[in-house]
Amino acid sequence: MKTPGLREENDVDDHSDDLTTRKKDEAVLTRRRILQGAGGFFAAAALPVEKLAASEFPGSQDSRKAPSRASADITGRLARYMVEARNRNLRPEVAREGKHRILDTLGAMVSGTRLKPGEMAIRFIRGQGGVPEASIVATDIMTSAVNAALANGMLSHADETDDFEPATKAHPGCSVVPAALAVAERDGNSGIELLRAVTLGYDLCCRFLLALGPDLVRASHRSAEGTSSTFGSAAAAASLARLDEVGMRYALSYAAQQVSGLWSWTQDTEHVEKAFDFGGMGARNGVTAAMMVQAGFTGVPDVLDCEHNVLEALSSQPRPEEMVAGLGSRFFVTETAIKTYSVGYPIQAALDAFLKLRKEHGLRVDNTERIVVRLPEDGARIVDNSSMPDVNCQYIIAVALLDGAVSFSNSHSYEHMADPQVRAVKERVELVADRKLMDPDAPRSSLVEVTLRDGRTVSHLTRYAPGTRENPLDTEGLNAKVRDLMVPVLGTAKTEAVIQRVNALEELGNVKELRPFLILSK
Predict the structure, then answer these.
(1) Would 205 be classed as within a structural domain?
(2) In angstroms, rounded to a whole number, what is the distance separating the alpha carbons of residues 106 and 499?
(3) In what side-by-side order are the strands of the sheet with 7-9?
(4) Can you tell me the distance from the alpha carbon of 227 to that of 239, in angstroms, rounded to the nearest whole number?
């Protein structure tokens, strides 16, 4: 169905050669009775996992899994890896990319305190109180780890500066990093433990969506971002809580019970519910799952395999093996895209293409007649004349033409979006939902075509926006982005201290050492 005001095209003759798709290769425990008695969890945890299978619920004989499903033991394989991952050395490039994502998310958190979703989250948590276990960044608030995860998660997606995984469309950082930070601060984990936990969280966040099928999730009106964030956050929190294999199994089950999120977030006009859906909800859920199990809660040990398992519950065509394929060799923390610009991800490539054209051809308001922005269909629908400036493609391109650059300030300004001059230039920008750009190898590419008043037409195709795996930001490029986000809130000294310590996270003895540089005194 066509979106009002959005043109759709099936054929684009002048760039079809650029869009050739490179095809990508593509013992379990039954439910058992280990929840009786106050010491049930600890007794169960002390037993070899195989022994636990002998103690089944009454009547389970009639509902045993088929051998093919049982032999896969997806839950067990994943739980064992989760235990091992907290002590496993990361390859240098994986460690570097993990530190980049943590620093990038901290930048999003801090800048988010000055936006409405962040202000709402801070106000809410200030009224909740809570045991002082973890801090809310850029405030004087100490609260429980669960509350801190919720607030910092909303701060992380209060704007459009957090990272994004192009294939699944997941936003791992805005939920996984706040969840991990809250537990690490609560329990006094080291920097390397935080880094390994975040890396694990990214893996489960993205793998869960791959196992469900991202397009199938959206076809059922669910939010891919909300659905995946709880699993990633639970994994990171459980790693820092140092749960054993049985505990990891239970944490996965409590995560599965909390998985939620509807695609209705596209109707949010102020980014507040979106911040909760993408960041706060999953971070809160994940920390809750890990803390409950750490406190002795027992649960279902095979939620990915059992008769009524979460994958079959949430997908019409689940692919369970995606949960464990390439574990220990493929790390999704290296595959997410760090946003160069503080705008919605579908706009990143379009803005990059337009800025290149502006510089190369000297584009100005007085010599530019018309701008056509072509985006993949799924992305175009999200950013077509949105009420939120940072996810409004026409507005962002108009700002780029008028101002010559897009900053955090002008990309989030409702006042600037309402300016008569901006509105007039915005009328020259046409957004086209282009089916030819639905390329799985470059799912967020963009072609921009500009017609000048002298009759010339110039164009540029950006397949990979800056910050993607194919076109990455280096450490100094990321540091510069973080300075732009943090300095107005924390000041230069604290910002530089955070950048230095996160870039050397392996040397940090206790995550609490970051606290003085991330908070504001009363």
Answers:
(1) yes
(2) 10
(3) 7-9, 429-434, 368-376, 446-452, 457-462
(4) 20
Give tens-digit pLDDT for 413-457: 999 999 999 999 999 999 999 999 999 899 999 999 999 999 999
Q: Does one domain contain both 327 and 345? A: no
Total Cβ atoms within 10 A of residue 22: 8
What CATH number did the domain enclosing 269 receive? 1.10.4100.10
Total domains present in the chain: 2
If asked whether residues 398 and 316 sit together in one domain, one would say: no
- Token look-up 């909760």 returns 276
Enumerate the β-bridge partners of residue 337. Answer: 164
Task: State the CATH number of the domain containing residue 386.
Answer: 3.30.1330.120
SS3 state of residue 192? helix
Tokens of 482: 């973080």
Asked if 303 contacts 310 with a C-beta cutoff of 8 angstroms, the reply is yes
Q: How far apart are CA 221 and CA 374, in angstroms?
A: 25
Residue range 48-96, pLDDT digits in tens: 443 443 333 333 333 333 334 545 899 999 999 999 999 999 999 999 9
Q: Is the dihedral of CA 261, 267, 271, 272 positive or negative?
A: negative
Residue 193 resides in a domain: yes
**Cα distances (Å, whole numbers) of residue 251 to 70, 142, 187, 285, 396:** 20, 25, 17, 10, 42
Nearest to 378 by CA among 6, 22, 17: 6
* Residues 112 and 235 occupy one common structural domain: yes
Domain span holding position 347: 7-20+341-462
> Do residues 257 and 397 share a domain?
no
Cα–Cα distances (Å) from 56 to 1, 63, 87, 252, 346, in that order, read 50, 11, 32, 19, 49
Q: Cα–Cα distances in Å, from 287 out to 233, 235, 238, 472, 518?
A: 7, 9, 8, 31, 20
